[in-house]
Amino acid sequence: MRLLISSGIRVSMKIAKNGAWQELVGHRIVMLRAAKGVKQAQLARHLKISPQRLSNYERGERPLDIEQAIAICENLQGTLDYLYRGIHAGLPFEVIQRLASEEGRLELRGTDGLKN
């Protein structure tokens, strides 16, 4: 795919087709969906794609183009940094909490041990 930038410079945009990387991106989509409590069919409907296509993204069987990545982020309050790089910065706090909990990096504790 080639884009023509307003200054007339052509920029080549490649979609990463590394299987392991695609699986990581797909896993992050699943994690965002779980953190937001959104079912696969709901997200597919909002993205105006088939559930099978979304499933292919999530399993890493289909490369995720930037337009779909942006749409996924808009629908799930995610960021491209999270989807493509796994960076939590910029995500809403409640999403970071849920992701950390899902990833097993957050232990939720009661207030038993707290004293005033």
What's the helix count? 6
Give the CATH architecture: Orthogonal Bundle
CATH topology: 434 Repressor (Amino-terminal Domain)
Strand line-up across the major sheet:
1-2
| Total number of beta strands | 2
What does the radius of gyration come to? 17 Å
- Counting structural domains, the number is 1
The low-pLDDT segments are 1-14, 110-116
The level 1 CATH classification is Mainly Alpha
**CATH H-level homologous superfamily name:** lambda repressor-like DNA-binding domains
Structural class label: mainly alpha
Q: What's the helix-strand series?
A: EEHHHHHH
Task: Please give the largest β-sheet.
Answer: 2 strands, antiparallel
Rough outline: globular
Mean pLDDT over all positions: 81
The end-to-end span amounts to 61 Å
Strand content: 5-15%
Describe the structure using short key phrases:
116 residues, mainly alpha, 434 Repressor (Amino-terminal Domain), 2 strands, globular, disordered N terminus, disordered C terminus
Helix and strand topology:
Layout (H helix, E strand, L loop, with lengths): L1 E3 L5 E3 L6 H18 L3 H8 L3 H8 L7 H11 L3 H6 L7 H10 L14
Antiparallel strand pairs: 1-2
Structure in words:
The protein has helices at 19-36, 40-47, 51-58, 66-76, 80-85, 93-102; strands spanning 2-4, 10-12. Helix content is 53%, strand content 5%. It has a single domain, classed as Orthogonal Bundle (434 Repressor (Amino-terminal Domain)). Mean pLDDT is 81; it is low at 1-14 and 110-116. It has a two-stranded antiparallel sheet with strand order 1-2. It is built from six helices and two strands, in the order ββαααααα.
